[in-house]
């Protein structure tokens, strides 16, 4: 139907002369139908009182197209919680990998020691360490000053012979 055409018998028009899309709208109380926004919060509350509902004004008001600060904070909080859960899952995986790596390194060190030193590698290592300790104590007790004084002329003579041949 066009604007200048008369309405048919089955077509209904609203207060502005616009055809109603749904026949159910024609049965609605015209005092309850609002096609425009509210001029003030008081007008909004009066309209809600007409409807018999108690809906907060702030739930439907968006100032200058921006999201209210509370909604933005709730969204950011939700994102941070999801990120925290993701990080916890990653940390759990890293802990499991760490324990696996440490256990494998211990097994490898034990197998390597057995391969190099035989059946009782730790006993053999302890014996080698004890022998090194005893040898060090023996060398410390030697009079190295007298040995160095005696050996120094022999070392210099050997170096002179090598230089003379070259």
The major pleated sheet works out as:
none
Could you give the order of the helices and strands? HHHH
Q: How many H/I helices?
A: 4
Low-confidence stretches: none
Percent range of helical residues: 55-70%
Would you mind describing this structure in some detail?
With 166 residues, this protein is mainly α. 0% of the residues are buried.
Brief synopsis:
By secondary structure, the chain is mainly alpha-helical. The chain has helices spanning 41-51, 69-117, 121-141, 144-165.
Which features would summarize this protein structure in a list?
0% strand
Mind sketching the topology for me?
Layout: H1 41-51, H2 69-117, H3 121-141, H4 144-165
